[in-house]
Design brief:
alpha+beta; Arc Repressor Mutant, subunit A; 3 domains; two-stranded antiparallel ribbon; 14 strands
């Protein structure tokens, strides 16, 4: 028997003047925003309709401003304050999610290692993304399969593999002429003799822009126009590196973009930032844009792969992971992600077939 741990944030607000605090269910408010129905939000929160209204009234009293507005015959909407509150929660949830999952995984690994029937563990380091999250969820459902799945930046996971920190390292590489530049940092840590590649997915990368694209942004150069606000990815992420490479390819200096120094740490976080109206554009995956009902301008296609030692393929647990990647459930999960596709996932290739280290 093994244990899984989930850590969820709690949104507690405290007033400085009298130290009163209030627990606010931002997911509950987001359900109202999405459906326009308090009854749906109450059902999802497993509370009565009456109790749902009591909660809304308490929260409005605490903030001294209404959070929702009822429209005759047209359901319920959030007030501007309620909208800002929900979007702040969306951004924080997207930012904290991978970190909380890493902490939960650390606790899981410590507890499961102490159990009498603890078996061998496959350690996976991969950057956070929608397909990776889907794979992590499916592996977590496999009975008896012990996987230590940590979210690690695209730059660091190959180094972790080379130094024995993990068994499978996730990497995303752009197709086309930028690929050679992207792999330069890994020439010293990957070996065609010792390592092989496991195919996973491809994904579309590009500009995430506000619904309807009011700024008419269709190219990188337009990010430099006066008044256009960017929210960027963190400097150590593979997505940020790709963005900077695309700019350099066109002879553009990113530091001249308004908001270039404003960063978030996940695809979902930058999309939530744009959706909340705090930025006009970002660079990320199409799935993040669609998740927040935003528009998307495709610029480049990436391959997401895993690299492992050849000897790891002899491990039965690794073979089970490959079978999950080849399975129907994973294919369905990827098919449901906009901008993602899976061609022969779980197939093993030589390093030279996918990555030329010459």
């Amino acid at each position: 028997m093994s244990f899984r741990i989930e850590i969820e944030p709690v949104w507690r607000f405290t007033q400085e003047r009298d130290s009163r605090s209030m627990l606010v269910m931002l997911d509950f408010l987001n359900e109202i925003r999405a459906t326009g129905k308090i009854s749906r939000a109450a059902e999802r929160a497993q509370v009565s309709y009456r109790h749902a209204w009591n909660l809304i009234e308490k929260w409005s009293e605490f903030f001294e401003t209404p959070l929702v507005e009822r429209r005759q015959g047209r359901g319920t909407i959030l007030t501007p304050f309620g909208e800002r509150l929900v979007w702040a929660g969306q951004r924080l949830q997207a930012r904290l999610g991978p970190q909380l999952q890493n902490l939960a995984q650390e606790l899981e690994s410590e507890i499961n290692a102490m159990l009498p029937e603890a078996g061998s563990v496959v350690r996976i380091h991969a950057s956070h993304g929608f397909a990776v999250s889907a794979l992590r969820e499916l592996l977590g459902r496999e009975p008896g399969l012990q996987v230590d799945f940590r979210y690690v930046g695209n730059v660091n996971s190959p180094a972790s593999l080379a130094h024995g920190g993990c068994d499978l390292a996730g990497m995303h590489l752009p197709q086309g002429e930028l690929r050679a530049r992207s792999i330069a940092a890994w020439r010293d840590v990957l070996s065609p003799t010792d390592h092989c590649v496991i195919r996973c997915v491809t994904r579309e990368m590009g500009l995430i822009v506000r619904k309807g694209n009011p700024r008419g942004i269709t190219a990188l150069r337009q990010l430099f126009e006066p008044g256009v606000r960017l929210v960027n990815r963190d400097p150590e992420s593979g997505t940020r590196m790709l963005f900077d490479e695309l700019l350099a390819q066109q002879g553009l200096e990113g530091s001249r973009i308004q908001g270039y120094q404003q960063v978030e740490f996940t695809h979902a976080a930058v999309a939530a930032y744009v959706a909340s109206g705090m930025a006009d554009a970002s660079f990320g995956v199409e799935a993040a844009a669609r998740k927040f009902d935003l528009d998307f301008v495709p610029l480049v296609t990436e391959d997401y792969i895993f690299v492992c030692h050849r000897r790891s393929l002899e491990n039965e647990a690794v073979q089970r992971i490959l079978r999950v990647m080849r399975g129907e459930a994973f294919s369905q999960a990827i098919a449901a992600l906009p901008g993602y596709s899976a061609t022969d996932p779980g197939s093993v290739k030589s390093l030279d077939e996918i990555i030329s280290l010459a």
